[in-house]
């Protein structure tokens, strides 16, 4: 569903800001569409420099020159680039249009768009919805904030393609005409306050997923999260609610041992709960959201169920890692804010050791006091947030500190007893110690496996 299919950049001077995955895909797409492209990045070097130059992209590395911005006909931002940077605001004052990579790509899509946002659960829901639609026989491309950037999918987009797009607040804050056929808001809690000035600004960014929809479109909302309903107020799309705990008169709900779509005329069974292979009740909510999307698309219940049965979750999202000495290790490195960490903690019983910390993004660590105390949990704190964690949580549980992930894993194992669980649920960003949450999770798994090998050798001696 292309909002502006006549959009053209042929002959235009376009500056793309940020040479990460999305920026590179946007620069390459723009060159193919006839633009003269400069890719600007603050880094002195990027790995893909030779390939980009060969493709016809001019590189500006080591900083942003004002003339590269004020002299452009269009500026395209990678999601990781804040629109408030001086060079960008100077260009806006000069009348240069500024859009994001998601907005750019969406203007050339030929197929329909399902866009999924929320503070947590985006990747799981996006992946599972894509699998359900594929199981139902549709041509599906999954990407956006996960997998391939939307700009890398434009050339493959056809009128019968359904694009299932994970959309972050960073991507949504720069959309103008982006119009999903189905827009999903999973949940909302404080996050990314190191980027968004206030929680209201964060909410406004999320709300833009609905701004271009009309009465022919759908908004899928979490009835158990009042903030999602509030954020969607003013939208023109039809609504379909989903709920784990509530009982909407019409919506996708958990009814006993089955996910059903409830209408005024009755209930349609969609997915048996027994087919879900995921840890955590909040991940079951993601299954409900994916089922709601699939129901709107017209996917049969048996196809949804096949997709759910074959889905064991994503890396770094309550991912089982290993078990030795009677202690289970779980990687939830994607739990990058306080609310996500609480959801992870709530998945486990007494006997819990939580590896937590990194670069704090805002929120209230005191929200973790009750669930940690209820489980008699121990915390191992890492990264810049160590003193914050000790101050906030030390009154209800033992807080150890560790200098790196190797020490954190060993301290956690030493603190655990047989039958306990060690979970990496950082409640923080990773950028103080790691490139991203994925590297953090992989290092955690590497250290767990290394410790497990040592433990097995010791046991055999």
Quickly describe the structure:
By secondary structure, this protein is α/β, with parallel strands linked by helices. Helix content is 33%, strand content 22%.
Helix-strand layout with pairing:
Layout: E1 13-17, H1 21-32, E2 36-41, H2 49-55, E3 58-61, H3 66-70, E4 74-77, H4 86-93, E5 98-100, H5 101-106, E6 112-117, H6 122-135, E7 139-144, E8 161-166, H7 169-172, E9 182-185, H8 199-207, E10 218-222, H9 226-231, E11 238-243, E12 251-255, E13 258-263, E14 266-272, H10 281-297, H11 301-309, E15 319-324, E16 327-331, H12 338-345, E17 352-357, H13 369-374, E18 378-382, H14 386-393, E19 399-401, H15 405-415, E20 421-424, H16 437-460
Structure commentary:
- The protein has 461 residues and is of the alpha/beta class.
- The protein is 33% helix and 22% strand.
- The protein has three domains: 84 residues, NAD(P)-binding Rossmann-like Domain (Rossmann fold); 207 residues, UDP-N-acetylmuramoyl-L-alanine:D-glutamate ligase (3-Layer(aba) Sandwich); 137 residues, Mur ligase, C-terminal domain (Protein-Tyrosine Phosphatase, Chain A, Alpha-Beta Complex), CATH 3.90.190.20.
- The chain has a nine-stranded mixed β-sheet. Strands 15-16-20-17-18-19 form a six-stranded mixed β-sheet, with helices on both faces. A five-stranded parallel β-sheet has the order 3-2-1-4-5.
- The longest helix has 24 residues.
- The chain is globular and about 70 Å long.
- The model has no long low-confidence stretch (mean pLDDT 94).
